[in-house]
Amino acid sequence: QAKAQGKNQYIFFDDSLKHALDRRLLLENELRTAVEDDELVVYYQSKMNILTHECVGYEALVRWNHPSLGLISPGEFIPIAEETGEIKAVGAYVLNAAIKQNKKWQDEGFGYFPVSVNVSAEQFNQFDFVDQVKKMLKRHQLTPKYLELEITESIMQDVETVLPVIQAFKAMGIQLSLDDFGTGYSSLYILKELPVDTIKIDQSFVRTINDPRSESIVKTIIDIGTNLGMQVIAEGIETFEHLEHLKAKGCIFGQGYYYSRPVPVEKVKKCMS
Ligand code: C2E
Ligand code: MG
Ligand code: MG
Ligand code: MG
């Protein structure tokens, strides 16, 4: 916490830092029982075809509804879960919930579309991860092509170990996308080595698309992805201007507040695809 805040300002070891440390310790402790106490909630954000404005899928994004602190964002508690190992339970919960919900939507005549779930490195690298996913799909009778796993470059520290796992998922028919693309350090190498279906342009490039450098980077990512036969999705579309810029560069898919914030399941509107 202090490190994150410390970038642009001085931090004194005062009440506010103590408060931050107390909160961190509290979250760390209480996260252990969050899953069994049913405190996690999965929100969904639509993924859009930005040319036709049709919804093409959903991303599952977890929140922690803490009994006294209220809704806590994944940006705050996922890194803690990753450090403590609790991410395995949290991740399994979200995967199961998203698979179950997607099957339910299909049964309700809601439409057939993929739901994507974010997967942390610590979760992905479990020896039985493929097996876990297989069992969940079977339990809920969901066709694998309606599940998409979002991974980041941080998973790929060791391509040789990760490649067979990714190939196993591909063989099952599960889709894979590379999240936050462009923020890691070995993006192009990963694109060359790993058979991912989709690249997600990190929102930091979209937000600053007015800057000629960001603009060039966005254009280049779209071109590389397209040339490799991948789907390219722009993250963090907030304005009509962002949208127009992206369209002009040949981007077809996107998500962002311009269309919809992530919403709880009862607020998800019918996906027309
Ligand atoms: P992400 O996977 O890159 O998800 C996109 C984040 O950007 C989400 O934040 C989403 O709410 C937010 N976002 C979407 N559109 C816009 C926009 O137009 N403007 C802005 N400013 N933000 C937008 P959220 O839900 O707080 O999640 C943050 C991160 O936490 C996610 O980034 C993902 O890395 C992680 N996360 C969320 N759920 C899970 C999960 O179930 N498992 C794991 N391992 N990580 C998760
Ligand atoms: Mg994601
Ligand atoms: Mg992202
Ligand atoms: Mg991410």
From TrEMBL:
Q: Which residues form the EAL domain?
A: 24-273
Q: Which domain of life is it from?
A: Bacteria
Q: What is this protein called?
A: Diguanylate cyclase (GGDEF)-like protein
Q: Which organism is it from?
A: Streptohalobacillus salinus
